[in-house]
Amino acid sequence: MTQTIALQIQQPFSDQLRKGYPLISKDAVNAKQLPTEQGTLLKLMDHHNRFIGTGYYGIQNKGIGWVLTTDANETIDKAFFIKKFKKAIDNRAAFFNNDNTTAFRVFNGEGDGIGGLTIDFFNGYYMVSWYSEGIYSFKEMVYEALAETVNYQAIYEKKRFDSKGQYMEQDDFVMGTPGEFPLLVKENGMTYAVHLNDGAMTGIFLDQREVRLAIRERYANSTNMLNTFSYTGAFSVAAALGGANKTTSVDVAKRSLAKTIEQFSVNDIDYEAQDIKVMDVFHYFKYAQRHALQFDLVVLDPPSFARTKQMTFSTAKDYPKLLKDTIAITAKNGIIVASTNNASFGMKKFKSFIDQAFKDTRTRYKIVEEYGLPKDFRVPREYPEFNYLKVVFIQKID
Ligand code: SAH
């Protein structure tokens, strides 16, 4: 049985939460009043002891829990989860009815009313991601609610928390009939291979769908394309299908080679005509400069943080350097697709990194397009700060 405790919220946080802000910040509460068990329901009260809402206690790096409802009469039970799931699914009717795209996000945490929980759809299979021990304590209710709401081949899960907030190696199968992997999904007619039970990541980042389409339709044709931090090469596949003369994919992880070959192969692209390099991007930049390589289209999509034997990379600190190295190997009039999913800064700051890099290299540029999260990655309407994705298409003028 889930416990409920009353918890006082300090100002100005109480006003924010009352208006609909979903995240309970660490600074909003007196740590001494926090319960011992994550998953405890919190009856949130203001300093006049007036009801604000009901939330749950779950520790993420962003905060200590999420508001679930501001209706004093609403209880957090299976019916609550069913109601939220049905609404989220109704919102994605256009996705469910589109045969050209069979992988998308069905439930996006706070944007759909339950922070700390996301659900992705992969061609009949569902992937539930849990972001705190707190929300994971509701798992029985959540799985019963989901199983009653959708038709599924199988449900898989990723636990994206432990003491360090990292993914835990585990068997990710939850219920249904286990799938065979790779599972092939469609995205705007392209094919992607996904693995739902093989480590922290599935093979494709669904939030970049619109960027892949833009690359394929409007930017790739006849280019020499470079994809840095390429992972399984999803952007390279989009570029090859969009008519790139050649793609080069660079990722330091050994697994990226086989995974990239797989993505090309399921799209009938001859991977031997493409370059796939397992190496540190920063070493590749030096190699490319030494050989005077020039690219017409470069994708930069680094992780927010990364550590290799020689160095650590943090987007917030190193993006301008990454861009400067890129500018040096981008052809005149070429396009740089600069992307980051770092939630700790917004578009304005990201653009200041771009501006700094071009100023430092005395190069002129033009921003030609911008992207954030696609529609299925719903964010709370009033709070765009939860829209963490920032992608800017930049043309190098000279
Ligand atoms: N752009 C990819 C996702 C990138 S995930 C896509 O759209 O699918 C981040 C990737 O960066 C991981 O595959 C990781 O192995 C790689 N990586 C981290 N540090 C790196 C480095 N210094 N050089 C090359 N790759 C790196």
From TrEMBL:
<dbReference type="Pfam" id="PF17785">
    <property type="entry name" value="PUA_3"/>
</dbReference>
<keyword id="KW-0949">S-adenosyl-L-methionine</keyword>
<dbReference type="Pfam" id="PF10672">
    <property type="entry name" value="Methyltrans_SAM"/>
</dbReference>
<dbReference type="InterPro" id="IPR015947">
    <property type="entry name" value="PUA-like_sf"/>
</dbReference>
<keyword id="KW-0808">Transferase</keyword>
<dbReference type="GO" id="GO:0008168">
    <property type="term" value="F:methyltransferase activity"/>
</dbReference>
<feature type="domain" description="RlmI-like PUA">
    <location>
        <begin position="9"/>
        <end position="69"/>
    </location>
</feature>
<dbReference type="InterPro" id="IPR029063">
    <property type="entry name" value="SAM-dependent_MTases_sf"/>
</dbReference>
<protein>
    <submittedName>
        <fullName>Class I SAM-dependent rRNA methyltransferase</fullName>
        <ecNumber>2.1.1.-</ecNumber>
    </submittedName>
</protein>
<dbReference type="GO" id="GO:0032259">
    <property type="term" value="P:methylation"/>
</dbReference>
<keyword id="KW-0489">Methyltransferase</keyword>
<dbReference type="InterPro" id="IPR036974">
    <property type="entry name" value="PUA_sf"/>
</dbReference>
<dbReference type="InterPro" id="IPR041532">
    <property type="entry name" value="RlmI-like_PUA"/>
</dbReference>
<dbReference type="InterPro" id="IPR019614">
    <property type="entry name" value="SAM-dep_methyl-trfase"/>
</dbReference>
<feature type="domain" description="S-adenosylmethionine-dependent methyltransferase">
    <location>
        <begin position="172"/>
        <end position="347"/>
    </location>
</feature>
